Amino acid sequence: MIDAEADKIFRSRARAFGLNPDNPWIGGYVDYEWDHGRHFLTAYAPDLHAATVLELGCNVGGSAVVLALLGASVTGIDIDELYVELAALNASRHGVRTARFHHLADSKALAFPDGSFDMVTCNSVLEYVAPDDLQPILREIDRVLIPGGLFIVAGTSNRLWPREVHSGRWFVNYLPRGIDLALGHRTPRPRGLSPWSVLRALPGYRQLCLEDGGKAYIGAHRAAGVRRAKLWGLAGIAALGPITRISAGMLTPSFFLALRKSSTVR
Predict the structure, then answer these.
(1) Are 122 and 110 in contact (CB under 8 A)?
(2) What pLDDT is recorded for position 248?
(3) Please, are residues 116 and 218 in contact by the beta-carbon 8 Å criterion?
């Protein structure tokens, strides 16, 4: 249920920022995440009541609002102040009171004590991180996550695929970044991220998508209404997981990881 007055404010501010509130990735982002992303969250965190969750890169609050509606106490952060304001307004229009949003200019230094959160989520975020910043950011995520906590990476453009999902460019994922400057581009063009870049930075984390043979991951796809042919393909990849150590979520155009931090304090 959308609060009409809060919706007017959200739409007005979105337009003031040059954004279309009717764009499905602006005004409809919560609905999309409820219909799709929610199933992947609840597959690995079925009970979020009273859970503390950090949403790193909250954008306009799509995932954060869904997490709050599922019962979590959510802290959303973003390096873009515009999105932080819109995320807070988005939460208000959906009647959410258990999500707060903050601007944080440097994700390499999270302003939270050690072990502050039961769960951390990154939805279509890490592929935008500068390569040199990825490991420091992941170390900070590890620091603020409790022992035994859950880290979910979702919707992240996969560098293994020939077509980069956000830009739609073919084969750019397979080219070194330096070639862009040589071709006259002022900045490197967007590229996906390898899931192994995340896994290497978090040694000792358990891959939940491998441990259950892909059952929860494929079940989430089924609940989200994915075609049967894709489900069969994912099941085939998952069946090889014990041999390849590659989960089905690591080979999709936008990859998915559900990682459990060790409960042993290092």
Answers:
(1) no
(2) 95
(3) no
